[in-house]
Design goal:
CATH topology of the largest domain: D-Maltodextrin-Binding Protein, domain 2
Largest sheet: 9 strands, mixed
Structural class: alpha/beta
Shape: globular
CATH class of the largest domain: Alpha Beta
Radius of gyration: 21 Å
Strand content: 25-35%
Number of helices: 8
Distance between the termini: 54 Å
Order of helices and strands: HEHEHEEEEHEHEHEHH
Number of domains: 2
Number of strands: 9
Length: 246
């Protein structure tokens, strides 16, 4: 009888050992990570569904980018969401399975689509502090710098610039939020100049880093192989480039 009483307690303790709260920092980066969106954005929606399916929970603490990065970098959180991979960052983070491919390139106004890219004759808009894609960095360009992505699109809508350098889905989100009447006027100018996968970076400095990496990687791998992955992406279809909707 005493043995039978111990069995439920043992099972409960085993179950709780495999249930973990994954605590991540994030900065506003709609439509990928945002407190303003239902589901908190594409990336958070995917990761929360992946962890929930395996019995784990996701806790996201939104902060300004520099603070979010530093707290994750030094292990004050398990990691950070919406991170691009680089050689320098690999010193600080483990990288589980990536989420989506960010496409950075040009947007143009439908009334001013260049017939060809004669950079000497074009005024290109970029956000101050953003690195230009590698293919543009060594070129002698006419650049107009603005304070943020919203201002960049505003300049394009007003035809004050010829091309805007911006991530595909970020532009789609901002146009629909702030300039819905211009959805058909502001168009993507293919091909992308640069493509980068979005990751959750798991802090190497956190004492639970290896365990969290395994949990996140396995959870994302299983979700990606299920129908649920595609269902989530479908709910954001109007914001994603065609090749990312799968």
């Amino acid at each position: 009888m005493r043995l039978l009483l111990w069995i439920p307690l043992l099972l409960c303790s085993i179950g709780s050992a495999w249930s973990m709260a994954i605590k991540l920092t994030a900065a506003e980066y709609p439509p990928y990570c945002s407190q303003k969106l239902e589901g908190s954005g594409i990336v958070i929606d995917l990761l929360r569904s992946a962890l929930d399916a395996q019995g784990h929970t996701l806790v996201v603490d939104f902060k300004p980018w520099s603070r979010a990065y530093k707290e994750a970098q030094f292990g004050l959180a398990h990691g950070i969401l919406c991170l691009w991979r680089s050689r320098e960052r690999e010193h600080w983070f483990y990288y589980p399975k990536p989420f989506l491919l960010n496409k950075i390139g040009f947007y143009a106004h439908r009334d001013k689509i260049p017939a060809h890219l004669d950079y000497q004759k074009l005024l290109i808009g970029n956000v101050r502090g953003y690195l230009l894609p590698q293919s543009l960095q060594d070129m002698d360009l006419n650049i107009s710098m603005v304070k943020d992505d919203s201002k960049l699109l505003d300049m394009l809508i007003r035809k004050r610039i010829d091309l805007a350098v911006i991530e595909y889905s970020v532009a789609q989100y901002l146009i629909r939020q702030h300039h819905p009447s211009e959805v058909r006027q502001i168009v993507w100018y293919p091909p992308p100049l640069e493509e980068k996968f979005l990751y959750v970076g798991i802090s190497r400095k956190h004492p639970e880093a290896e365990q969290v990496f395994r949990i996140v990687n396995e959870s994302l791998t299983k979700l990606h192989a299920s129908e649920r992955w595609q269902q989530i992406l479908s709910s954001y279809a109007e914001l994603l480039p065609p090749t990312s909707r799968q």
